[in-house]
Amino acid sequence: MSHSQIPRPTDSELEIMQILWQHGPASVRFVNDLLSEKRDVGYTTTLKLLQIMYEKGLVTRDDTNRTHVYQAAFKESDMQQRLLDQFVDTAFRGSAVKMVMQALGNHRASRAELDEIKALIEKLEKDKE
Amino acid sequence: MSHSQIPRPTDSELEIMQILWQHGPASVRFVNDLLSEKRDVGYTTTLKLLQIMYEKGLVTRDDTNRTHVYQAAFKESDMQQRLLDQFVDTAFRGSAVKMVMQALGNHRASRAELDEIKALIEKLEKDKE
DNA sequence: AAGTTTATACGAAACATTTCGTAAGTCAAA
DNA sequence: TTTGACTTACGAAATGTTTCGTATAAACTT
């Protein structure tokens, strides 16, 4: 199927995307086993979700074998960027900086992580010269 | 009505919250006028949404006059923090730092903004000592 | 080969969200 | 006082999401 525009995944769909990104191509069984560790979910529910995600173009699948193997259709970082843009727009009126400040202010980041961010900022500022 | 737990606002609801945060307490008419500038939406649609938001506890209202006046039930920053936590969990597997890096990497922030963030980081690092 | 387990497909119920039509009341102007 | 504009309340259609039961076929076990 062809898709002019990929829709934003729902929360449930994103949960499954996470599994596919973390573990690579996987069967319904595999996805459902991992999903079941976190919450109560039936096998056919997971199957149906993956089928819908396939129709939406969120995942691809290999159905040469009886057990189909699903795979994320997008890189995690690309999807994150899209979700981030959307989130900044709706929750922070488009201000990524405000969002960053809020995230740093209340999430306890380690010193190493803070240093990493600081280094990125300095690199960005250098690029600006 | 009493509420044990306030649900996450939907996208449409958040759009209305933004208006209430930006302009303060407002009538359905006022909200709908602003909303209509961006997209096509009927008056009773906006009314219904505000009524539902009232039932959910997202807004309060003053109904002493015929024209009810609605008001956000939460500070914008509090809501942003809640949405942010949720977003980081679902989209970045809990890593606020990764999210920040991605936001800074792809959003063009001004030098002044970058400096502001750097200052915050240095303050946080000082607090860590 | 017969029975058990495992797979997909599909329909539909249950639930949530979005949208709006219609009814009924209030208010102000003609 | 009648008319018209404006208001809230409410029901319900339209759409999207989540869940699972059932049917059917394939593969494995004994």
Describe the structure.
Two copies of one chain form a homodimer. Chain A is mainly α and 129 residues long. Helix content of chain A is 65%, strand content 6%. The first copy, chain A, has helices spanning 11-23, 28-38, 43-56, 76-92, 96-106, 111-128; strands at residues 59-62, 69-72. In chain A, strand 1 (59-62) and strand 2 (69-72) form a beta hairpin. The first copy, chain A, is elongated. The structure holds a DNA duplex (30 and 30 nucleotides).
Set out the fold topology.
The structure is a homodimer of 129-residue chains.
Chain A: H1 11-23, H2 28-38, H3 43-56, E1 59-62, E2 69-72, H4 76-92, H5 96-106, H6 111-128
Antiparallel strand pairs in A: 1-2
Chain A binds a DNA duplex (30 and 30 nucleotides) through residues 10-13, 27-29, 41-45, 47-49, 51-52, 63, 66-68.
